[in-house]
């Protein structure tokens, strides 16, 4: 009776003991297939056999190829990592999340377990995401990126990234969910005329025999930048060029102002002419108003002719010096020469010296010297010299006094039997006098005469 009972219990327990008993732990997640790419979805499992040693095999009934397709030996209570690859056989047009049942069969006793697999099948373009950072007109670079959005490893990828600001080509790889960042150097001259706003970044992506085009926005941030440059040239004829340039990316109003005084403005010209001129006292303010587009420049050229004010200043200085000399001397002498005709045809000149007293002066001695080549004529005007030194060729006049405002003229004639051609010069006349018992000295100007060839008859006449 006991033997019958034991056999019955053994027959009841044996099927359960021999049945497939696996613990399945799925390691991977979010497995993906890419449309047009002949690559399977890959699942990673950790299988633990809770029963006796056996052989197992994976299969399904929905037309999916499953690898490994051969049997797998797994010992009692053994854990084994399994990489299961799944790919459709024939046409498979589904996109999105897809689940299907599969089976694990015990090759020995033909028992099996039913499980389910889920994967995502996406279009090639949906496997990527691109983006870019923002930048402004003063930025020297901008960052862009491309990211693999799927649990799928791509081999070599050729990417061409282009926009209104740059165009580059890159070759790279992307692992599952990997992101690649690129820093693009910018050439500011290529976009200096572009306005702020959103611009399109195009990415042409080629990988695994597939091509796609992706787009995203580049944010060109508003920034108002006006740059001023100034150049100067010349000294007397001075030119000043002022340039305003909109280096930003928004339309910018600009007001240029140049200030001149009432004197310098008379010798200054502008190109172009100012929009407005406002005078306040001795200051004149010139202004120009413009609206500058990005990359646009506005230039004003200011030309100042300093020759006229320089000459005016020199004349004023000369006048001041002469006036000072004239007013500082108590006795002023002005010397001049006049041509006279001679009866014998000699070359003759009349020399006159006008003495003007600014204040009362006493004991005046006037000294003059004769140049070579001429002879003194023995007759004189109203004022005869007090002394004539023919050897030293020196003449002296003595005048007792002159009252303030009084004038006295002394004159004499010189002649030459030899014709003189060219510039004839007489030295200054010197006067020594006293004012309030203090001796002073003054000189006249130099006197010149330009002699030209003449007919002898022109010299005949007065003496």
Structural features, described:
- The protein is mostly beta strands and 463 residues long.
- It has four domains: 2-122, Immunoglobulins (Immunoglobulin-like), CATH 2.60.40; 124-220, Immunoglobulins (Immunoglobulin-like, Sandwich), CATH 2.60.40.10; 226-308, no CATH class; 330-459, Immunoglobulin-like (Sandwich), CATH 2.60.40.
- The chain contains two helices and 34 strands.
- A five-stranded mixed beta sheet has the order 2-9-8-4-6, with no helix packed on it.
- The model is unreliable at 1-17 and 455-462 (pLDDT under 50).
What are the defining features of this structure?
mainly beta, Immunoglobulin-like, 2 helices, disordered C terminus, 8% helix, disordered N terminus, 463 residues, five-stranded mixed sheet, 4 domains
Topology:
Blueprint: H1 2-18, E1 22-26, E2 32-34, E3 41-49, E4 54-59, E5 64-67, E6 72-74, E7 79-88, E8 96-106, E9 112-122, E10 128-132, E11 141-148, E12 154-162, E13 167-174, E14 179-185, E15 197-207, E16 210-220, E17 226-233, E18 237-246, E19 252-261, E20 268-271, E21 276-280, E22 283-292, E23 297-305, H2 307-328, E24 331-340, E25 347-357, E26 361-369, E27 375-380, E28 387-389, E29 394-402, E30 407-416, E31 422-426, E32 430-435, E33 438-443, E34 447-451
């Amino acid at each position: 009776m006991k033997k019958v009972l034991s056999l019955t219990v053994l027959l009841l327990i044996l099927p359960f003991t021999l049945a497939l008993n696996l613990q399945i732990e799925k390691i991977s997640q979010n497995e993906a297939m890419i449309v047009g790419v002949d690559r399977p979805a890959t699942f990673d499992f950790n299988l633990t056999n809770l029963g006796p040693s056996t052989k197992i095999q994976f299969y399904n009934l929905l037309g999916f190829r499953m690898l490994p397709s051969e049997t797998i030996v797994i010992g009692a209570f053994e854990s084994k990592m399994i990489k299961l690859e799944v790919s459709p056989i024939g046409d498979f047009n589904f996109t999105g999340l897809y689940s299907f049942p599969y089976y694990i069969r015990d090759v020995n006793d033909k028992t099996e377990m039913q499980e389910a697999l889920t994967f995502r099948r996406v279009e090639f373009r949906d496997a990527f995401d691109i983006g870019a950072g923002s930048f402004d007109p003063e930025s020297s670079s901008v960052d862009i990126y491309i990211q693999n959005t799927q649990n799928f490893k791509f081999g070599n990828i050729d990417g061409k990234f282009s926009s209104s600001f740059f165009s580059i080509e890159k070759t790279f790889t992307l692992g599952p969910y990997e992101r690649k960042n690129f820093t693009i150097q910018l050439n500011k001259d290529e976009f200096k005329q572009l306005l702020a706003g959103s611009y399109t970044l195009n990415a042409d992506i080629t990988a695994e025999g597939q091509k796609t085009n992706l787009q995203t926005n580049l944010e060109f941030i508003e920034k108002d930048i006006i740059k001023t440059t100034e150049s100067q040239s010349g000294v007397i004829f001075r030119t000043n060029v002022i340039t305003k340039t909109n280096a930003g990316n928004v339309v910018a109003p600009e007001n240029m102002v140049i200030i001149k005084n009432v004197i310098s403005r008379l010798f200054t010209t502008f190109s172009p002419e100012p929009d407005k001129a406002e005078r306040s006292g001795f200051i004149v303010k010139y202004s120009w108003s413009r609206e500058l587009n990005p990359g646009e420049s506005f230039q004003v050229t200011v030309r100042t002719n300093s020759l006229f004010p320089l000459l005016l200043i020199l004349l004023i200085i000369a006048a001041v010096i002469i006036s000072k000399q004239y007013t500082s001397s108590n006795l002023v002498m002005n010397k001049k020469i006049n041509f006279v005709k001679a009866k014998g045809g000699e070359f003759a000149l009349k020399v006159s010296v006008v003495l003007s007293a600014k204040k009362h002066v006493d004991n005046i001695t006037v000294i003059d010297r004769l140049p070579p080549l001429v002879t003194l004529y023995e007759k004189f005007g109203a004022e005869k010299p007090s002394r004539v030194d023919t050897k030293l060729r020196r003449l002296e006049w003595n005048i007792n006094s002159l009252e303030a405002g009084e004038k006295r003229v002394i004159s004499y004639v010189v002649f030459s039997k030899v014709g003189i051609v060219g510039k004839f010069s007489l030295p200054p006349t010197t006067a020594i006098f006293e004012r309030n018992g203090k001796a002073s000295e003054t000189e006249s100007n130099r006197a010149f005469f330009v002699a030209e060839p003449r007919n002898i008859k022109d010299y005949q006449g007065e003496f």
